[in-house]
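Sample log: Methionine--tRNA ligase.
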Amino acid sequence: MSKQFKRTLITSALPYANGPVHIGHLAGVYVPSDIYARYLRLKGEEVLFIGGSDEHGIPITIKARKEGVTPQDIVDRYHELIKKSFKEFGITFDIYSRTTSEIHKETASDFFRKLYEKGEFSEQESEQYYDEEAQQFLADRYITGTCPHCGNENAYGDQCEQCGTSLSPNDLINPKSTLSGSVPVMRKTKHWYLPLDKHESWLRQWILEEHKEWKSNVYGQCKSWLDLGLQPRAVSRDLDWGVPVPVEGAEGKVLYVWFDAPIGYISNTKELLPDDWEKWWKDEDTRLIHFIGKDNIVFHCIVFPAMLKAEGSYILPDNVPSNEFMNLEGDKISTSRNWAVWLHEYLEEFPGKQDALRYTLTANAPETKDNDFTWKDFQAHNNNVLVAVLGNFVNRAMVLTQKYFDNKVPAIGELTDLDREAIAEAKKVKEAVEYNLNNFHFREAQKEAMNLARIGNKYLADAEPWKTAKSDMNRTATILNISLQITANLAIVTEPFLPFTAEKILSFLNIEHINWDMLGSFDLLSEGHTLGKSELLFEKIEDEVVEKQVQKLHDTKKLNEAENEKTVAAEKSAVKPVKPTIDFDDFEKLDIRVGTVIECEKVPKTDKLLRFLLDDGLQQRTILSGIAAYYPNPAELVGKQVCFIANLAPRKMRGFVSEGMILSAENSDGTLALVTPSKDVDPGSQVV
């Protein structure tokens, strides 16, 4: 970085309080942010590390509905669990608060109101899906349907979890409400929008020209969004759970969670420092760093900066180091499928082994691409590195000193070339670790830190103090003095990565105060200093321990499969209930007609979509339909007649404009069959 800042404000993405924290969260956000915060504190810099729970997301209302409790019940439960787990795992937040706090509601409302009064929002009336049976507008996650890109029939209104494509509810084919199972209707509603297109010019300059040092995955995603052109984004939604929109005429509307949540960083800072918070958010000498996962890049690099810029008095982030996703045993981590390693369960089942997990997650950090956590790899990192390299060196240095010098630091004598070489190599570690930490390369930084233990092991093996002790105790004293100085350096360099281990090493050495400036020094322990009691730093993790964890995951997978089979069987065994009664006038609005198929073919790069070209009696029209799986030879449909809805608004899908909807009947086993007239009629004939 070119500018010298006086202080650093670190934020970490706010986890949804609808479930516990898992290793994907840790690897993506919380371990790297904690490493960085600890590093800056060791350097003596002024640092603030802000965390908290995001308690207004749709996943929370979904969870509450499933459990038959209130959203507040859900967030109270998980906020406390998450907060406790983070603390036990050694994540050193200066504050970990929540977005249901009164100060957050006040801060978010004031932020909205200031932008509103400055005319930074546009008011738009639009049509959104409404569930007439549940009598409410549907948030994106309450709508499912067929993905127009990959044909996944269970895509959500905001994203398809099968292909990862971001969606809007209008993109879905055959949408339905998850609340009632009914087909939603479009109703008009008014919302406030942040006109991101208005901010596109300065965002392009700020990111693409002024922050080329950002990680390639962050920079690339931002460039993609900017190149596509930014669009206004709603900052409110129809919901009863969240921060109420604080203006007249907004009854029943709350702040959209993407607008509300990042303001939580500000409100949590205000909660911690009510009289001094502004210097952290409004002083140009403060460096703001957001640690996030890749699914949050657009919000923290484009949307939140646009909000801050529109408000006018806040600083913008200097860097947004984002990681990719961590998978588990070759499969995507899934909260809904319970396919995860939950932090609170790990802490219970592996007491005292926080650093074994911290080390593995950092060694496998998904910094440039998605990576995989396996229990065998966890075992290998623990046994082959922590036990065999770091633990082995520290243990030998301590045990030999106790054996030959009564647990006191021996005097250093005349240095040999071997000594000077080991000291020189050890001194290089500081620069290598600093370079990587300053550039957010945590995986490489930890590797360089662990290299100090490798240097120590090689030095002991080459110097052989157990042999020199037989004839030259002065030489033995020098070897062990240098080994103990390396051990003290290890207490410093491992602290950001392995804080519990660093604390143990300090207790072994019987010293308390360390800071980063001491790293590379070889006079950290004075001659005659009495050492503390030592023990093994790490213990091996046996095969049966990891096999038990692997079996636990396999049992989860079997349970999921059984549940899926049960669900499918239940769906097959029953005819779906009749939907709510509608007025005849509503039915009259539908223009259902018969068309003759002129062409029919699969849409390229999809599994489910067919492209129909119909003669509708007036013209030819294109309609896309997700029934390819049931008609493997679509050419056979040419010449047949099908029923279709003629007056649906056109939709762009996969490079085509779909002008209607082909009608299909869904069997009890989920298969689809086209609805056709029993005998040929004229193209364009209405179904009455």
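Observation: The chain is about 45% helix and 15% strand.
Observation: The chain has a mean pLDDT of 92.
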